[in-house]
């Protein structure tokens, strides 16, 4: 037990001592992603805040490639992050290519797109404590292979640190009179709902189809979903009736 406690303390200290990213931002969640990627022999890591309706925002990522892999799940509404959140259990995919060959229908859009971006293994850990269900920590690898027992235990520690950081943000927000787990996530959800409504009215389609059309456009144009959403709300972009359709081959 002492060895386990020492390891947890070691990982927490690594996160606290981690220098700010190259952009100068000192974000605890970004530091969690950076240290998790290094200690878990991963190519990257990402954290997404989620809600019961599936709307989520990429809150932190260790690098642009990992942010892209997180964004792809927002585009398609499927992937390890979604499964880990809904099942409340870790999703451990040690060989994405093998999954595609054996279970091609599991993530028919996310898996081939992520594989094309170099993803070979992914491990998703739900961020939860009691009834609080906050989001998911994703760990990405550019090579196939399982987590070792030590790496799995370390990943759970990183998930616990992330939960604490998110709850601290919630407490700070409430003390400021703003009740949301993350300001960026709240703004993103508001923009996404607004964009959905605008596309629904413009194209005369149901709300669910409007979201699918926004995701399809983002993927077809190789853009981040958040950027497309922002352009729709700002009226810099108006989706065409004959534009990319959801359900097509990625």
From TrEMBL:
Superkingdom field: Bacteria
PROSITE patterns: ANTAR
InterPro entries assigned: ANTAR, GAF, GAF-like_dom_sf, GAF_ANTAR, WH-like_DNA-bd_sf
Stored Gene3D superfamilies: 3.30.450.40, Winged helix-like DNA-binding domain superfamily/Winged helix DNA-binding domain
Alphabetical UniProt keywords: Transcription, Transcription regulation
Domain ANTAR: residue ranges: 172-233
GO molecular function annotation: RNA binding
Protein name, as recorded: ANTAR domain-containing protein
Organism for this UniProt entry: Micromonospora endolithica
């Amino acid at each position: 037990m002492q060895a386990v406690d020492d390891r947890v303390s070691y990982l927490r200290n690594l996160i606290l001592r981690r220098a700010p990213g190259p952009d100068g931002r000192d974000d605890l969640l970004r530091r969690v992603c950076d240290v998790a990627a290094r200690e878990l022999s991963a190519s990257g890591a990402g954290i997404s805040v989620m809600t019961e309706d599936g709307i989520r925002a990429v809150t932190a990522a260790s690098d642009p490639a990992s942010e892209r892999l997180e964004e792809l799940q927002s585009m398609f509404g499927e992937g390890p992050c979604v499964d880990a959140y809904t099942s409340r259990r870790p999703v451990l995919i040690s060989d994405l290519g093998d999954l595609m060959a054996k279970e091609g229908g599991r993530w028919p859009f996310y898996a081939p797109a992520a594989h094309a971006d170099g993803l070979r293994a992914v491990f998703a850990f739900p961020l939860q404590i009691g009834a609080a269900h906050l989001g998911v920590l994703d760990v990405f690898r550019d090579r196939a292979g399982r987590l070792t027992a030590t790496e799995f235990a370390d990943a759970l520690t990183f998930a616990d640190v992330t939960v604490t950081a998110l709850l601290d943000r919630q407490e700070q927000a409430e003390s400021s009179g703003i009740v949301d787990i993350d300001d960026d996530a709240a703004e993103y959800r508001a923009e996404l709902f607004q964009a959905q409504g605008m596309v629904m009215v413009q194209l005369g389609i149901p709300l669910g189809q409007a979201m699918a059309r926004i995701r399809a456009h983002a993927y077809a144009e190789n853009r981040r979903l958040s950027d497309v959403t922002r352009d729709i709300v700002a009226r810099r972009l108006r989706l065409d009736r004959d534009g990319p359709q959801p359900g097509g081959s990625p």
